[in-house]
């Protein structure tokens, strides 16, 4: 490429420019002969010829080319990947020996493999995607790998860049596609030599991918922990997943892992001692596994001895009421009170029966779950004030509310009360109180209901679905139209449907801080047929514990503290809720309530909770965890003399995961796009040799395009303007 002015020399372009300029000269000479020399008109003709010449020049697209030759020593930048996925141990260093990707890269960096290039290039070595060393760093972002950013940065920072040597597994999960930076590098004639570190296929391994467990449980009560196991072996694996914890708590589950398949299942165990501690779930290591370190996971669990308080309200002693009451009465972890309205004969009496619905908030607030049967507003039953208090109990105190409608249809009056918005389904009582049939119908679990903790009557989703299919059915169901927005449908009628689909009969929804459940049949008591109390007792026991779970996250005498989400991540906005009672058991509405959170690093933060609802004594605040780990939490109200200490576990979000195959296709694409090379660890020395053989970098070309320069266009416009003004002065049109 030569420096200087260049023109478009295409024959047709030159022809058009020459003809245009010749015609302009002819008109110029003709005008001079006709009008004579001198005077104002001659200047106009000269200006017109000048404009025509400029237009003819523009048609030739003139450009001035300047070559910027690089006199400094060129630079090679070595970028090495320090992300979490590089901990994967799948780099073959011998016939049967493997090393982690990170260890292999570190070994090459320590050996200064780029030394042969230092005589020819300036060499800069830079890591990227390293996890933050400060536990409080990058709070608002996830930990991951941005492969595009480091490539863009080296191009911006180094004007003398000749090539990039990239050592990575290609596992990018943040930022723009690295092809964006590769395109910019290609335009600057900067090749990328990529060394793909890691295997593109799974190495032999059995991995315990996840464990989900509650943050607390009750002593001598069944606790369920969901787990996921991935098999990367080419054979079936029969194994046993176990859980162990403080006090000798143990549980196990036999599973069969299909070849290269995944299994999700549930572990059930029963802690025998109180206290907090770490529980460990393990999968035995198979002989051919490469990564034995991913066969175990721990979770923190607080085991407490508590009695959940339940209130059952109904209008008649129907079978559903009788068997529900019996099930709860026989549950050692539940204390039951009953309000049985007999609108015609008076209130029901007996052990645990109340003479009236709790008239005061301080009486009602002690209940964790309330069951509302076939009752309504008025007619000697609930009052509008009762309905308002129930709503406050759910939304403010995180209690649970279960709707159990019946054939009398008294629930209809609830829809116009304060409880109307809490019902998770829409109903239509215009055609009666429900639908009856002489043929037995059954509940059918939805996809969500197959593994929901509330509906788990067996230890795995497939077996659970079979249990529900075998349960005795029902002969009546409520006039449900559809589920409301935000509701979660767990079971539907096996056959009945309308324009919205299957009729939802087991539906749940969050309501403020609490939960609401709707069961649109009255025949759960029939589940005892042939199996006695097995499924009937288990279901209602799970309902009570599931609905009371949030309310009992942390509590001590006179203080109840809960938060959402229950398992927060670093950077989440955690809503803190506290209810403090005075010595008389009445929620305080005045006085300072504080929550002090001490991070694992030792830093503390004290939050003053604001009074959200003075009637219920609810105090709320917000907290954003700045690091992961266990936070020590202290809730304090000096004016009431109340204090509670607990823990809050915060996880650190990360997109990085060890054990996955390397994604080398993107490295191949980057190398091909930039005219570089791609290879594996064995080809590293060849890559270095290839860099040493790169030709001298071409001079950087800069072009000044006169024909499209704004100033040139402005000059032409100015000449046209002068010519037009001159014509007007000369009296020409």
UniProtKB/TrEMBL annotation:
UniProt superkingdom: Bacteria
InterPro entries registered for this protein in UniProt: Class_I_gatase-like, Filamin/ABP280_repeat-like, Ig-like_fold, vWFA_dom_sf
Transmembrane segments: 12-29, 41-60
Species lineage: Bacteria, Pseudomonadati, Verrucomicrobiota, Spartobacteria, Chthoniobacterales
Source species: Chthoniobacter flavus Ellin428
Protein name: VWFA domain-containing protein
Alphabetized CDD domains for the sequence: vWFA
UniProt keywords, alphabetically: Membrane, Transmembrane, Transmembrane helix
């Amino acid at each position: 490429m030569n420096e200087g002015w260049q023109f478009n020399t295409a024959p047709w372009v030159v022809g058009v420019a020459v003809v245009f300029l010749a015609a302009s000269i002819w008109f110029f000479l003709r005008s001079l002969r006709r009008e004579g020399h001198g005077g104002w008109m001659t200047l106009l003709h000269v200006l017109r010829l000048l404009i025509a010449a400029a237009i003819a020049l523009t048609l030739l697209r003139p450009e001035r080319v300047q070559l910027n030759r690089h006199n400094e020593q060129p630079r090679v930048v070595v970028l090495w990947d320090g992300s979490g996925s590089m901990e994967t141990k799948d780099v073959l260093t011998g016939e049967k020996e493997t090393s982690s990707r990170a260890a292999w890269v570190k070994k090459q960096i320590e050996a200064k493999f780029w030394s042969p290039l230092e005589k020819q290039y300036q060499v800069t070595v830079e890591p990227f995607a390293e996890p933050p060393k400060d536990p409080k760093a990058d709070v608002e972002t996830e930990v991951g790998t941005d492969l595009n950013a480091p490539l863009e940065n080296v191009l911006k920072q180094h004007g003398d860049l000749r090539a990039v040597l990239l050592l990575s597994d290609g596992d990018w999960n943040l930022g723009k596609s690295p092809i964006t930076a590769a395109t910019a590098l290609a335009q600057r004639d900067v090749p990328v030599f990529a060394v793909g570190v890691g295997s593109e296929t799974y190495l032999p391994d059995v991995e315990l991918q996840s464990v989900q467990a509650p943050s607390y449980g009750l002593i001598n009560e069944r606790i369920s922990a969901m787990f996921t196991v991935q098999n990367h072996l080419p054979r079936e694996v029969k194994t046993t997943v176990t859980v162990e914890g403080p006090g000798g708590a143990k549980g196990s589950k036999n599973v069969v892992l299909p070849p290269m398949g995944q299994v999700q299942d549930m572990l059930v165990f029963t802690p025998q001692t109180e206290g907090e501690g770490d529980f460990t779930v393990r999968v035995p290591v198979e002989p051919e596994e490469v990564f034995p370190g991913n066969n175990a996971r721990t979770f923190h669990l607080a085991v407490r001895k508590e009695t959940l308080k339940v209130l059952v309200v109904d209008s008649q002693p129907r079978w559903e009421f009788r068997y529900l009451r019996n099930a709860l009465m026989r549950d050692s972890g539940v204390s039951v009170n009953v309000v049985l309205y007999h609108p015609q004969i008076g209130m029901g009496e007996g052990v645990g029966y109340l003479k009236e619905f709790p008239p005061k908030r301080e009486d009602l607030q002690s209940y964790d779950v309330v069951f509302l049967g076939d009752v309504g507003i008025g007619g000697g039953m609930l009052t509008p004030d009762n309905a308002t208090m129930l709503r406050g109990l759910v939304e403010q105190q995180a209690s649970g509310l279960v709707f159990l409608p019946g054939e009398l249809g008294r629930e209809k009056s609830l829809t116009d009360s304060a409880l109307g918005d809490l019902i998770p389904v829409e109903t239509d009582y215009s055609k009666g109180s429900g639908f009856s049939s002489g043929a037995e119908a059954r509940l059918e679990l939805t996809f969500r209901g197959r593994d929901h903790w509330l509906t788990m009557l067996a230890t795995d989703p497939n077996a659970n679905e079979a249990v529900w299919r075998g349960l005795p059915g029902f002969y009546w169901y409520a006039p449900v139209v559809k589920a409301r927005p935000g509701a979660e449908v767990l079971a539907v009628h096996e056959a009945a449907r309308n324009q919205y689909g299957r009729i939802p009969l087991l539906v749940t929804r969050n309501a403020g801080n609490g939960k609401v459940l709707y069961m649109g049949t009255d025949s759960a008591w029939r589940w005892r047929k042939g199996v006695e109390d097995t499924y009937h007792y288990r279901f209602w026991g799970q309902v009570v514990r599931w609905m009371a779970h949030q309310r009992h996250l942390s509590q001590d005498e006179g203080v109840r503290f809960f938060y959402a989400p229950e398992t927060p991540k670093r950077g989440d906005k955690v809503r803190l809720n506290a209810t403090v009672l005075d010595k008389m058991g009445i929620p305080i509405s005045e006085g300072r309530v504080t929550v002090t959170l001490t991070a694992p690093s030792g830093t503390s933060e004290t939050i003053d909770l604001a009074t959200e609802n003075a009637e219920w004594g609810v105090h709320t605040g917000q907290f954003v965890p700045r690091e992961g780990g266990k936070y020590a939490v202290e809730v304090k109200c000096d004016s009431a003399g109340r204090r509670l200490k607990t823990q809050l576990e915060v996880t650190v979000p990360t997109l990085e995961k060890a054990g996955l195959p390397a994604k080398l296709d993107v490295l191949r694409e980057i190398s091909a796009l930039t005219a570089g090379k791609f290879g594996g660890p064995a080809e590293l020395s060849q890559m270095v040799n290839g860099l040493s053989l790169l030709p001298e970098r071409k001079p950087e070309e800069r072009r000044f395009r006169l024909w499209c320069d704004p100033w040139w266009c402005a000059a032409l416009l100015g000449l046209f303007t002068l010519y037009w003004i001159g014509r007007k002065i000369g009296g020409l049109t």
